[in-house]
What does this fold into?
Amino acid sequence: MAEKFHVPRITFHGLGSFENLKEVPGKKAIIVTGKSAMQKAGYIDKAKKILEDKGMATAVFEGVEADPSIETVMKGVEVFNKEKPDVIIGLGGCSAIDAAKAMWIFYEYPDYTFEDIIVPFGIKPLRNKAIFVAIPSTSGTGTEVTCASVITDRANGTKHPIVTYEITPDYAIVDGELCKTMPDNVTADTGIDALCHDCEAFVSTMSDYYTDPVALKSIDMIFEYLPKAYKDGNDLEARQVMHDASCLAGMAFTNALLGIVHAMAHQLGGMFGIPHGRANALLLPNAIRFNSKSTDKYNIIARHFGLTTAEEFAAKVEGLRKSVGVEDSIKEYGINEALWLEKLDAITEHASKDACIGCNPRTASLDEIKNLFQACYKGEKVNF
It folds into this structure.
């Protein structure tokens, strides 16, 4: 059976590419954004002017929180139904774009329930009412080119990935100028999130000759430019390279899918509120060690950097993590041990059922997932 490589119809990239929003067709756009960052930076007004100058009406849905909730998604759907846009624009951090993707599904299919949309690849064809434009302001998730959205179920303390190629955006605008306002900790978290996407895509059971070179190039870019962007947020070259690296990582993982790191990180975010990228950073080195028992592909990455083994590459990731201010363990991050032990069985169970774990190169038992969590909590290296 033929394989497919999914990307947006058009991706505009480079400093100043925000202006290419004028090339998006439509009659009415709704802009979905976060609480204030894009408004303060002037990008909401700039987007409205670009669109209105070409005769397109606009509306705005503001207030998407970090780790967007089911409740926020449904509030957005109410606005969509009132405004009836034929263009949906996710503008801002990954949370705004992810929320907009979920709103889009319910806008087109009002009878869907949340349980319906979290079934992997279970969404019927979209674009009956609207097309989708993604303009990210953080360099991490690559959501502007992916088939994924992550929505938080706060009542149950877990995150649910929505996975369907139907929500791959039609247009992506990857302009590093939007990232200037990212604080250094967000730069670190999102940058290592992108690195994790590359690493998981590269070793995924669905990786192929299309996804591997994209992931490997992105890994190279991140190791060189993430420390620069972290050190100086006004370094526009570093900002653009990291934005491009994140986008490439998104292209890799949306086609090869992810693995155990994301399955576990979703639980750290949902249960303990650890930012997604930081959760990935805390888990990735030990996941490399765990998976290296079943794949030799980390050795390929290691050789790319003049190293030899998966362990050497895991140590290199730990070095990058440390250089951008990420802790060495979940405990050091600040999660209370009593609370951790209380929730450990639940997050282990949830991780084992997460949609991302299916393409991991090594099958993990419940005990292995639990032991991985424990090692990452304590900052110990795994060897099983």
Remarks:
- Strands lie at 10-13, 28-32, 57-61, 87-92, 131-136, 148-153, 158-163, 171-174.
- Residues 10-179 form a domain with the Rossmann fold fold (CATH 3.40.50.1970).
